[in-house]
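dude i think i finally got it to work??
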Amino acid sequence: MYAIQMLIGAVMIHALAAVTSLVFRRDDGAAIAAAGFGGALAGLLGLLAGLSALGAAPVAVDWGGPFPFAPFTLRLDGLSGLMVAVISGLTVVASIYSLAYVREYAGRGVGAMGFFTNLFVASMLLVVTADDAFWFLVFFEMMSLASYFLVIFDQNEEAVSAGFLYFLVAHAGSVAIMAAFFLMANSAGSFSFAAFRAHHPSETVASIAFVLALAGFGAKAGMIPLHVWLPRAHPAAPSHASALMSGVMIKIGVFGIVKVGIDLLGGGVAWWGLLVLALGAISSVMGVIYALAEHDIKKLLAYHSVENIGIILLGVGTGMIGLSTGHPVVAALGLTAGLYHLVNHAVFKGLLFLGAGSVIFRMHTKDMEKMGGLGRVMPWTSFSFLIGALAISAIPPLNGFVSEWLTYQGLFVAALDGSFATRLATPIAATLLALTGALAVMCFVKAYGVIFSGAPRSRRAAEATEVPAAMVIGMVALALACVVLGLAAPLVVPVLAAASAQILNQPATVFVDGAMLSVGETALSTPMVALLLIGLATLPVLLGSLFAIARRAPRVGEAPWACGYLPDGHMAVSAHSFAQPIRMFFRPLYAIRKTVAAVEGWVDRRFDGFVAAARRSESAFDDTLVAPVTRGVGEIGRRAQIIQGGDFRIYCLYIVAALIALLLVTLR
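look at this
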């Protein structure tokens, strides 16, 4: 009960911070402080509410409401508690970061930005805890609209176009989700999720509802092929909003898939999990391939969100396969891996977007080709971005490595004991996951090297300085979280396994043996891995000191040999040259993206034509109907003014004439 009360308190503080930011819209400093400090305070309260719900029994509170058919009910269980904790934790960091970052937008409506940011977070908290289809859809729409206004905040052509595409995809997804809920409500006789859990529809109806929900929530998650909005919308939004959208909003898509597929429909049949597994594998590979070709740092990170949503879906799909086929260990392992990567992605992707925002804050460009050498002048940003890059590349012992290791184990265990389709699909998925990991390493070698290493490629890069302290604090906090979530995996996994067991409605499976993660015959100790890596790095130094190896001669600061040519700045490795071999190898896949972009352009042109036609029809309506009537009334008014000349005697004559007329009517 206390968790629910803290949750309501967090939502109310977010609402108060939103309104206060809007009230102080004419005072940029006050608006930024109200939105930032209010968001951080609400985030801390929400974080406590979410963490206290993990491992506890589900709690639901009916608050009544104006609609008898849809009581306002909030429920905190393992899944919603985890989501509340993730949303609120990242909100705390993004709010602190915004105290300095948003000053870049001074004079451009920061009060409105604070209003929509806090409304966005509050609506996300209510979406994941609503226990009724009606209120779920209401808060889902609130979340989409608030994030839409953040996407178009810059009000330039790119932002407005990206916002329009996001608006279309988001609401098309809402329609699909609504249709799925209507099917389930028709079977259960109520819009309550509790009724959905108690009365499952027939297999055919359930399958249709699941596919609709998968399409709707998959669009929100950025799952391929419904990802087209994500690489355009996330870069358009302010960076702290991009961190929230990529770090937590798209996870609500994953939350919805788990909620409908497992919690409300009980796991369904095996092909549901295989479908999720296939979409996850495709999204992971295609996302990282598209990211490799990008020179825009925020677009690169947006495509990596597509990649990591795919990895999360690999775990969720494995869990659904295990649940539907009666393999509880596979179900628990797959879902635990998916939830772990959900948490990890929120942390390291939030960190990377904040790092990108810090670079853009100083460089005023998103083009990596115009950066370079920033590691020397922005050391805190460089170090934090490096931690995020290592984590997203699944380098041990950081958090991304642990969740991907669990995903591999889930796929391997499912492949050993399953149907023919499962034994065929899971090794392919594991292979694609390995390819994804290799390409992710390559992509972030490119990104980090081009941005932070080498010589400056522009005047701004040469003159850049470290960002303000509030932004550094936000980045360092998330960098530390990447390390802690990796090293403390033996403590984190049991919590997530308990949440998974509650979602799956089965006893918890133990994957921890002391300080080791243990799955079957395999085991992993991240603290031991960390010690070995530290030893590997320090051993050469110790041996050199022990045997008194002579130091090398001082390094000569000569220009590098350029194969007989005079050294030229264009010879340095660039983002374009680094990714060129991959672009050539995967040219057919990039051609698909060009085709999709052409279709998007055709839709934009048709929409512009529709708007132009609407404007013409509106003017035609005015010209043919409204304008003649208006002119006629005006002409009558002008002629009627003749009888009102301002002469008092004429007005007395009018009165006498009116009395005579009334007398005649009476006599008649």
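The chain is about 75% helix and 5% strand.
im so relieved honestly
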